[in-house]
Specification:
With 189 residues, this protein is of the alpha+beta class. 40% of the residues lie in helices and 14% in strands. The relative contact order is 0.23.
Length: 189
């Protein structure tokens, strides 16, 4: 967990299906509200399909970026995050994760499943990104996902490019986020 980083540049090196099955299998073991397991995963590896997803994602993100608050625009720029989503066509696989919106706690449960998968990918020596386009409904159309499922993320899976710097990201200290019995009473003495 400590070494996992979000990766936006991938090698064009293939990933074995065995590794992908282990990642997907990890996701299905996530806890879920009322044990509804409201998630579904669509694995995408077709080049034309990935390109179509990329083009639509770039379109919806352009709208999102235009309406984003100035602080977020600055942060995106400082992080080098642009409208170009090459990772959607570079990574050998995309996992599109959607949740069944009629299930209790569907969104929380689906994100827990995503967390299991990205940690499993890390364990397989692979890199991921939990990419959330500004709008996801285009995925229902492109991938024939029923309307009662809402796509929540696209997870590129692959080997990080050699130029991808795996720098350490700052983390809040435990005493800033963990409290004893009530907010403000640090659990750390």
């Amino acid at each position: 967990m400590r070494s996992r980083r979000s990766v936006r540049e991938y090698q064009r090196k293939g990933v074995s299906l065995r590794k992908m099955f282990r990642i997907l299998d990890a996701g299905r073991y996530a806890p879920s509200g009322a044990n509804q397991q409201p998630w579904l995963y669509i694995v995408v590896d077709g080049e034309k399909l990935k390109l179509r997803i990329r083009r639509e994602a770039e379109k919806v993100d352009e709208k999102f970026h235009e309406s984003a608050p100035s602080w977020l625009k600055r942060w995106l720029r400082d992080q080098g995050i642009t409208l170009e989503k090459r990772f959607l066509t570079e990574a050998p696989y995309l996992i599109v994760v959607a949740g069944f919106t009629k299930a209790p706690y569907w969104l929380e449960s689906t994100w827990t499943s995503i967390a299991y998968m990205i940690l499993a990918a890390q364990g397989e020596g692979l890199a991921t990104l939990t990419y959330t386009p500004g709008s996801t409904s285009f995925l229902n159309d492109i991938l024939d996902i029923p309307r009662e499922y809402s796509p929540v993320a696209i997870i590129p899976v692959g080997y990080p490019s050699e130029s991808q710097q795996m720098r350490k990201r700052p983390r809040k200290r435990l005493k800033e986020i963990a409290f004893h019995n009530k907010y403000g009473r640090s659990i750390i003495k």
